[in-house]
Amino acid sequence: MKISDIKRVNSYFIELTSKKDVKIKANTPVKLFENGNQSFITPIDPSEIADVNEAIQVVPVNLKNEELLEQLLRRNLPRLAVVLNVTKKREMTLEVKVFSAEKPMDISIAVEDDFIDKIKKQMKLKSLSRAEESLTDAFLISIHNFTYGVMGVHTNANKDDLLERFLLLGKEGYLQIHRKKDENDQTYFVVEKLISSIKDNEYAFFLIKGAIRFTKSMFLEKARLETLAAMQEIGSTITGYMNTWEAYGQIEQEETFKKVKKAGVVPYTNKEYLPNGVLRLDIEDSEKLANLANYAEKGEGISICSVDPDDLFGSEITIDRYQAFTLEAKEITVELAEDIEPHKQRIYIKRVPDDAILDNSGYLFLSLAGDISRFRRRKEARDNILAGRSYMPHLAAILERQAISKPVKKRTDPISQTVREKIFPVHPPTPMQKEAIDIALNTPDIAIIQGPPGTGKTTVILAILERLNEIYDSSSGIFGKNLVSAFQHDAVQNAIDRIEIFGLPGIKFGQKRGEAGDDELIIEHTVENWMEEKRQELYQKYPEILKEKYMEEFDKIYVNYLYSANTTENTLKLLKETKELLLSKLSMELLQKIDKVIAELKLSLGGHRDPQREHLVKSIHKIPYVPQVFEDNGIEAIMEAIYRLKKEENSILQEDIDELMRLTIPPLNEQQFQMLRHIRKRILTKLIPAEEIFHTAKQKEDIVSLFTEISDYISADFNKSKSGEDAVLLDYISEFENSPLSIRNSLLDYVSVLGATNQQSVGRVISQLKGETEHYDNVLIDEAARSNPLDLFIPMSLAKDRIILVGDHRQLPHIIDEGIVKEIEGAHKNEDQSVSDKVNENIKKSMFEHLFQTLKILQKKDGILRTVTLDKQYRTHPVLGDFVSSNFYEKHGEVHIGSGLPAETFRHDLQGLEDKACVWYDIPIEKGAEVSGQSKSRPIEAKKIVAHLKKLMDSGESKGLNFGIITFYSSQVKAIHEELVKVGIATKNDANQYEIKSNYRVEVVNGKKIEKLRIGTVDAFQGMEFDVVYLSMVRSNELPDKTEQEKQRKYGFLMVENRLCVSMSRQKKLLIVAGDSAMLRSSGAEHAISPLVNYYDLCKGNKTYGKIIHE
């Protein structure tokens, strides 16, 4: 509802003028106020104006309006005002609605199914599943952070209990709201009926303001109220799950600000742009630069400004103080192009905004811009969850293990015929895969799917998304109904790349830090790649179409001649293309006519023109500037031209693009049509060489006649030989090639799956595309055990119907700062030990594991299944699969992970290791011990692994196989790379970066490129798989291991079971662990590193598939 839709209250129209240009658009809600003897307006939503701190002074246009304005301001009654229109003379009309009173209100109003059935025709609801949204649009006004409504109370109502029954005024009627109580004396509000009219003076109306919302059912409102009661009972105690993480987040924020302060401010004395576009800043104070270098590395965000930030750094930095300073100082945020080398007394900057204005001297410091966005997103999501304002209002109660009311859902079958044929075409789903899909579809709130290595969780994700789209009510559109999120960009991309729902791709938003491009370009690339794939699929399926493409190609030539400004040389070129294209199609008579015209026109040909540029020129010519023609498809023609202009990525054209965008809002007046004609001519002047420009496109009549004759001839021939179905198919392909903008727009209307990291699920572009519908019906989070709970709150707070967490708490966990944990513990050291234990549990367990255990508890209370563990792996050899199952899952009381494929599937012929699955490569300490430093390494182990690897990769038996080398230490990664360089597998470039040589890096297998070799720490390998994996153990020492502290010093990362689980489950055919077996015989090894001890025993004891290599 808009302010202008409000009836039954006093309305006033005031004509005002401003002393300067008004930057407020029509239909913008504004605040009307006075300061001294002057009157001002400012948008209620600060995003509606460029400068949020600048109110607009206004004066009435005449005495009548002056008296009206004075009366309104003097009475100072509650009011809502909206700008109806703004003229170029700085005049505007304000509509003001005045109320007798204003009351704060925070309520949810339940909308039951029986009520929806009654009013669906009366309100012409487009979607029954979105009835609450339709009611919001018809009865509430959302402005910035508040919702407004107009409440009507009967004149005979009990003055002490006005909320027992009341009306909400809407566009075309009144909703009667009734307050009820349940058996637990819990109060909630429900829509009772829709009233079309009331008697005059029967009700008194006043303004309500706050958090007012419609919810789909009484159950959700009951759940919200029960959640609020539970949160009130928990209060601020640190043992509460969300309170623990609030404390963690607060300290993390403070530590971030301290880091920026410690890094300090560095003055620069000169700037210079280098030919590659990088900005160089010269620094005189090398000591301050050296200090900054301790905190900043390549890719780090840096703030640059001309105002000395001493005041900001002189006291405690806060979000508000930082933002106030950056606004005043006109700070810009850039990225370091290289690591800082203080002795050079300069730094290199990339990604300087095009419109940035930098002084020759100024100041730089670590940027907080990204951190502040991160902290704000976290806080908003957490606050919404705690206050029951998230789209799943009982989410906080679940996180705190509180049992509350749940809506009853109609059960959905997990497997449809389409899903069976598309997702499981060869093998049917396993019982646990089917159960996982069932739980995800039928959960009343959250489903947890634990996917141990190789158990097909990606397949399950695809089946879930496919099934959700099948059962969804698409009457209100399906764009962006599902969000796929994850902790890292790679995990999101891996999931999105495999998704195709209704034949359409998912679209990922956001990039890694340091990556080029923006979301708009990523969308374009995704669409273009999808279109190209579809074209190729069509050509492969209908190869005869290629033979008929001459029709389409000739149409391009013909249209090019008709719509382009043609020189003689261009005409010659088009005629020659026509002859070459249609040589076997035309009659001899027509070919002779073409030859004759070519002979008459023949001149030397000019330079080659880029086809993309020709498409662009054609699209500019198609822009109509005559009203009669414009009415047909003028807006579409302008948008097509803008689309192609943007693809040029040329700043010279940006002004033209901006002006064209302003002409896409009909209706256009005569002056705007003249402007359109001028812009069209100006763009063509920039695009076409001077000798080709005609103010009016000119064609010779004899050439037009010849092209028309050719067109008629081939059309008649085509119609004789081809069916109507062929013609439709050709038109379909032509649309893909010639109307990318319309295809893009259509695609975006039907793409149901969007992808983004936890943080970027509320990014700018994705939020703009979602529009007013900020939520998602379903939020699916992959690799959920790796996500920090503070970040997980963000996508989870957006879920309306279900949250599906997919991951595995036995693999890599989320990253925590032990220093922050100790600080929280220190703040509560005087409390009971159980408090410290609970805080540790809340923080060190991933939210995935916390909810996995929580939902099992809730299952016992309400009988609703919400958790499942996939129990059949298809990645690795059965011997290795059983090893992973027993050492990382069954020992914790979890189910046995069986193998779905026989051992024969994993056969190989690698020399000396034929058909082996588990190998220990023993490198004793006598050959060389570990090397200590900031990170551990063992050079001899790196050397032996690389020598062994090269022998395997150079053999013919390695064809079609790929290899991975995993270690727990970054220094060992470097040592392995150095050895790879020595044996000729890798090189080291001028930037000291290692690059695998192409013949070792990639291989084409069955027509597809595969990564042949990867080296890295375990963190880079989760979710990946390789035929052969080397695990470099690194640790080789003679330290004691009797106490827990001694064990930590001796074994280090080898004691982290999650990391071992990942590193020992990436292989398909063969796992080779390289290390010092004497470490396994130490007295504390059985307790500290039991999986490695057991693996050695497996290699030694299994004569069929195991082997020990002695060095």
TrEMBL record:
It holds the Pfam family AAA_12. CDD domains: SF1_C_Upf1. GO terms for molecular function: helicase activity. Residues 443-800 form the AAA+ ATPase domain. InterPro entries: AAA+_ATPase, DNA2/NAM7-like, DNA2/NAM7-like_C, DNA2/NAM7_AAA_11, P-loop_NTPase, SF1_C_Upf1. This is AAA+ ATPase domain-containing protein. It comes from Halalkalibacter wakoensis JCM 9140. The lineage of its organism: Bacteria, Bacillati, Bacillota, Bacilli, Bacillales.
